[in-house]
Amino acid sequence: MSVPASGPKIKSNMERRYLVSKEDLPVSCPLPWTMRWNSHPRVYIPVKPGQDAACPYCGAVFSLIARNSKK
Hints:
The chain is mainly β. The protein has a domain at 17-64. It contains no helices and five strands. It has strands at 17-20, 27-29, 43-45, 52-54, 61-64. Strands 1-5-4 form a three-stranded mixed beta sheet, with no helix packed on it. It has a two-stranded antiparallel sheet with strand order 2-3. Strand 4 (52-54) and strand 5 (61-64) form a beta hairpin. It is globular, with a radius of gyration of 12 Å. Mean pLDDT is 79; it is low at 2-6.
């Protein structure tokens, strides 16, 4: 899910489902790279392994995924 802070901004809550990894935690909605002028207040989403978590404002769903580790 990582998008550089200097990358292009997207409309707030443009997607409805986001896959996040442990490196992305803590997760907040709206996301850091979205335009926030027309969005809801920032809230932190308690994402847990194996469970979806939804934003109470916009309903965007966040799922924690495991990344393959290279050894």
